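[audit] Reproducing an earlier prediction to check determinism. Same input, same settings, fresh worker. If the tokens differ from the archived copy the diff job will pick it up downstream; this log only records the rerun itself.
[audit] input (215 residues):
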Amino acid sequence: MYLCVALVGALGILSRRAWCNLLLAGLFVLGLLAPHYLPFAPSQAFMRLAGFFALGAFCYLNRDVIAVSGWGFLLFAGLAWLLRNTPAYPFAFGLAEASFAFWFAYRSHWYGYNLSGDYSYGLYLWGYPAEQVVAHHFPTIAPLTDAAPGFCLAATLAVAFWHFVEKPAIKLKSIPKQIWARRQRNGSTTAIDEPESTDLSSSKEQGKKAHINTA
């Protein structure tokens, strides 16, 4: 999926919202009618993950016109409950889940979980693998029961990932800027120093000429 995003960005489509929305709509229709034609789609489980990925991309592209509120989450949650026994339930549930994530992130105003570090990316990165590990070792466990140990395992990995990998890596972002700024300072210093040395040599020559004329 990330390779597809890189390709779309190289083609200049990411900089045009209308083109991106049209591309996402086309991929959605193709995924419904002929998923075997989609690139990098090895299984049906992948299609669900790709759908959430595309939904996140769509929300980011149209973030200035998408309203985030608790009422929106309740609306989608109620819709998912009403469609729970229909083929449309996965789509309604996906919208409810995404709306809850945006509401919790941007409207709950609770940041206590981030006092010791930013573990959100680590949870995103390790959440699915952690749940799969629990499901592998406990194959008879129910999905809701799997969520608790899976979350604990993912949270532990997220904390370690932040403090030992992500946070040190973020500090490295300033190194290229520092090198570039140092090179610019050295270049400007050299450019300023050269005329001064030229003026000094010319003043010496003028002093020699004046001494000769006096003699």
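[audit] rerun output stored. Observation attached for the diff report: The chain has a mean pLDDT of 82.
[audit] end
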